[in-house]
Write a structure and sequence with these properties.
By secondary structure, this protein is α+β, with helices and mostly antiparallel strands. The protein has a domain of 61 residues: Winged helix-like DNA-binding domain superfamily/Winged helix DNA-binding domain (Arc Repressor Mutant, subunit A), CATH 1.10.10.10. The termini are close together.
Length: 118
């Protein structure tokens, strides 16, 4: 699900820190370094909602870079880049082998695994 918000008079992809954690893993120091670096370079803009909550928006420069990365990926691999989805599917597939018999094939596991990410 993509969320779009209006920021500085234009529609931009809306990103929360949770999206970064889903994409890059839950190592908070690693994610913070990525976010700080992107903010310094003008790729994303930080919006402070409250003292502890912050949201992030791609700037025009960030959107251009993302589009260039997508184009390069398509030229190299011959297909569109799949952001985040392939990692989630691989993670579910890896863990399904180690599940007890009564949980294997349970359709609710995929529903519960998606919670908080969509």
């Amino acid at each position: 699900m993509k969320i779009v918000a209006t920021f500085e008079g234009r529609e931009v992809p809306y990103v929360t820190l949770t999206d970064f954690y889903v994409t890059f893993g839950s190592r908070s120091k690693f994610v913070k370094k990525i976010v700080e670096s992107a903010v310094k370079r003008g790729l994303i803009k930080e919006y402070k909602r409250s003292r502890i909550r912050r949201d992030y928006f791609l700037t025009e420069k960030g959107e251009k870079l993302l589009n260039l990365v997508k184009e390069a990926y398509k030229l190299i691999y011959g297909r569109e880049i799949e952001l985040g989805e392939s990692r989630r599917k691989v993670a579910v597939a890896e863990h399904s082998e180690s599940l007890p018999d009564f949980l294997k094939g349970n359709p609710w596991l995929s529903v519960l695994a998606k919670r908080g990410r969509e």
